[in-house]
Write a structure and sequence with these properties.
The protein has 11 helices and 9 strands. With 333 residues, the chain is an alpha/beta fold. The longest helix is centred in the N-terminal third of the chain and has 17 residues, at 96-112. The relative contact order is 0.12. It binds zinc ion.
Length: 333
C-alpha cells in the first residue's frame, strides 16, 4: 500500500540503539526487527534511515511566546523574578486571549517540527494552567503543565486546585521560594503522584544540599540518560538543557556549538533566532539553483529536521546489503 513505509537502518528506543528496521502502516509503527526480515510485501516504499522516538522539549515557558522584543539589558533577577520581574509584568499586561493565541502558535510550531511533548513551567496560577490546556486543545502535541501557586504563604485550597488541573508544580528558584514553601509543595505533589520541579539559579551558585531538599523530580541523570527519548514522556528527557541566548547579538553565521567566544546562555530567550537551527545545503562548485533543486525534494523552503537523514542518505549513498537490496523496491521519489 502506498501509505506503508519500511525504514531500514538503525533503531533507537527503550531497548537501546541497534541495527534494524521499522515498518509503518498508515502512519503507525507496526513492526520492528532485524534488517531483511520485515513482513512488508512488494511495493512498500523502502528508505534507509534511523528511527528514533519523537523528541520531548523538557523545559518551556510557553507564556513567554507573547514577548516579541528582546528584554531590557538588566540583571536576570529583574527579568524573571516573580512576581514583579519584567516577564511577569509582561504577562500581567497581556490579555488572556492574546497569551492563549501565542502559546497555541508556539505549540503548533513545535508539533509541526515533530516534537511529541513539552514540559511547560506555567506561571499565573490556576488560570495559567487552564490557559495552557485551552491553548493545547486538539493539537497533536502533549503539553505537560507544571503550574505555580500564586499565594504566599501557600494556601492549601489553591495548591489542591492547581494540582487537580496540572501535571505537577514547577517553582522558581531557592532565592524566591523558602524551604517551607518547597516542603509544602513537594509533599502535596508526592501525595497526588505528580511532579515537583524547581529551577536552579543561573546567577547564583546555590548550595546543592539545599537545592536537593526536598528533592525535585526531573533529576535522576543516569536513569534519564538511559531513558533518553523513549517512553511516554520521551522519557522525561530534559535533564540536559541547552538554553541559548544570543538573540540578535551574534550574527547567525558566527554561531557555533563550540566557539572560543563568550557563551550566550540564559534562561528563556524570547528570541526565535535562539530556537532555530538553520538547515543549509552548500557545495563549493555547485550553484545555488542546483542546491535549491535538491532541497525541493526535502521540504523546499521550510525543511524540518526530519528531512535531514533522508537528505544525507541521498547525497552519500552507500551499498545496500544484498539481503535487503532484494527486498528494496524502487523509491517513488
Ligand atoms: Zn524555567
Amino acid at each position: 500500500m502506498a501509505s506503508d513505509l519500511l525504514v531500514e537502518g538503525a533503531l533507537l528506543d527503550v531497548d537501546g540503539a541497534r541495527p534494524g528496521y521499522a515498518l509503518f502502516r498508515d502512519g503507525l509503527l507496526t513492526e520492528t526487527g532485524s534488517v531483511g526480515t520485515a513482513s512488508a510485501g512488494p511495493g512498500v516504499r523502502t528508505v534507509r534511515g534511523i528511527v528514533v522516538p519523537a523528541p520531548v522539549n523538557g523545559h518551556t515557558h510557553l507564556g513567554d511566546a507573547v514577548a516579541t522584543r528582546e528584554p531590557p539589558h538588566t540583571p536576570i533577577s529583574e527579568i524573571v523574578r516573580p512576581p514583579n520581574g519584567y516577564k511577569f509584568r509582561l504577562l500581567q499586561e497581556t490579555p488572556a486571549a492574546e497569551k492563549r493565541r501565542a502559546m497555541r502558535a508556539a505549540l503548533d510550531r513545535m508539533a509541526r517540527e515533530g516534537v511529541a511533548a513539552t514540559v511547560d513551567f506555567r506561571e499565573e496560577g490556576l488560570p495559567g494552567v487552564r490557559m495552557l490546556r485551552a491553548a493545547a486543545r486538539g493539537l497533536p502535541i502533549r503539553a505537560v503543565a507544571l503550574g505555580r501557586p500564586l499565594r504566599r504563604p501557600v494556601e492549601r485550597r489553591e495548591l489542591d486546585a492547581l494540582l487537580e488541573h496540572s501535571d505537577g508544580i514547577g517553582l522558581s528558584a531557592i532565592g524566591e521560594e523558602s524551604r517551607e514553601v518547597r516542603t509544602i509543595v513537594s509533599a502535596a505533589c508526592r501525595a497526588k503522584g505528580k511532579w515537583y520541579a524547581l529551577h536552579a539559579s543561573e546567577s547564583n551558585r546555590e548550595d546543592p544540599e539545599e537545592y536537593l531538599d526536598p528533592r525535585p523530580d526531573l533529576l535522576d541523570l543516569e536513569q534519564r540518560m538511559n531513558w533518553l527519548s523513549a517512553g511516554p514522556y520521551g522519557n522525561r528527557a530534559g535533564d540536559i538543557l541547552l538554553l541559548p541566548r544570543a538573540c540578535m547579538n551574534v550574527p547567525i553565521e558566527k554561531r557555533f556549538y563550540f566557539a572560543g567566544i563568550t557563551h550566550y546562555t540564559w534562561h528563556g530567550s524570547a528570541c526565535e533566532q535562539d530556537g532555530h537551527v538553520p538547515f543549509i545545503l552548500a557545495h563549493p562548485s555547485e550553484t545555488g539553483a542546483e542546491m535549491r533543486s535538491i532541497m525541493s525534494d526535502f521540504g523546499g523552503d521550510s525543511p524540518s529536521e526530519r528531512e535531514l537523514t533522508p537528505l544525507v542518505r541521498s547525497l552519500f549513498p552507500y551499498p545496500v546489503q544484498a539481503q535487503s537490496a532484494a527486498a528494496r523496491p524502487t523509491d517513488g521519489r
